[in-house]
Write a structure and sequence with these properties.
The mean pLDDT is 93. Helix 3 links the parallel strand 5 and strand 6. The protein has 7 helices and 6 strands, in the order E-H-E-E-E-H-E-H-E-H-H-H-H.
Length: 191
């Protein structure tokens, strides 16, 4: 098994939490993991990106080369397009459809969506609205993770266990909200 995953978004959207959950699930499954993060401008609403490499064999580099990412998980649709050169020919993009407009010249969202929909393997969800509608407004990122589960090749139960482990110290209510969000994402990706 080998998966190269790019996680991207804007500071404060929960990208690093998703990386932690995936990493925990992978390690509990006996996989090797390498991670490289870029989040220097995250406190100012800037780009946050993480390279996450999982494999059943040792991994030499923590960076994903151009054209090699199996999955791009993006909390923001324009960020998904930014990392498109890293996506492999058969790779998947799982992205939020809701823009985070943090620059004055943000491109037209309908153009961004049209560009994404031209790609062969895209799941685009309004995770913000789904999170609000289902009473888990702080777990939109985990809805996206649930939608990405099949593309990641990690068993659903392993992700559930990782959520329990990662969020356990925050209390049962936080764990349950994130488990609910994971399930919502899985269902939405199958619709």
């Amino acid at each position: 098994m080998k998966k190269d995953i790019i996680l991207c978004g804007v500071g404060g959207q929960g990208i690093l939490s998703i990386a932690t959950i995936i990493g925990e699930a992978a390690m509990n499954d006996g996989l090797y993991i390498k991670q490289a993060e870029v989040h220097g401008m995250s406190q100012r609403g800037g780009d946050v990106q993480s390279n996450l490499r999982l494999s059943s064999a040792p991994i030499q580099s923590d960076l994903i080369p151009l054209g090699a990412a199996d999955v791009i998980i993006s909390m923001e649709p324009m960020e998904a397009l930014r990392y498109l050169p890293f996506l492999s020919e058969n790779g998947w993009i799982i992205t939020s459809s809701t823009p985070f407009v943090n620059i004055p010249n943000y491109p037209d969202i309908e153009t961004i969506k049209a560009d994404l929909q031209q790609l062969p393997h895209v799941i685009m969800l309004d995770i913000e609205q789904s999170a609000k509608d289902n009473g888990v407004p702080r777990s939109a990122n985990v809805i996206l993770l649930g939608a990405a589960q099949k593309a990641l090749g990690i068993e659903y139960e392993k992700l559930e266990d990782a959520i329990r482990s990662v969020f356990g110290r925050k209390g049962e209510a936080v764990v349950e909200a994130n488990l609910k969000a994971l399930a919502l994402g899985k269902v939405k990706s199958e619709e």
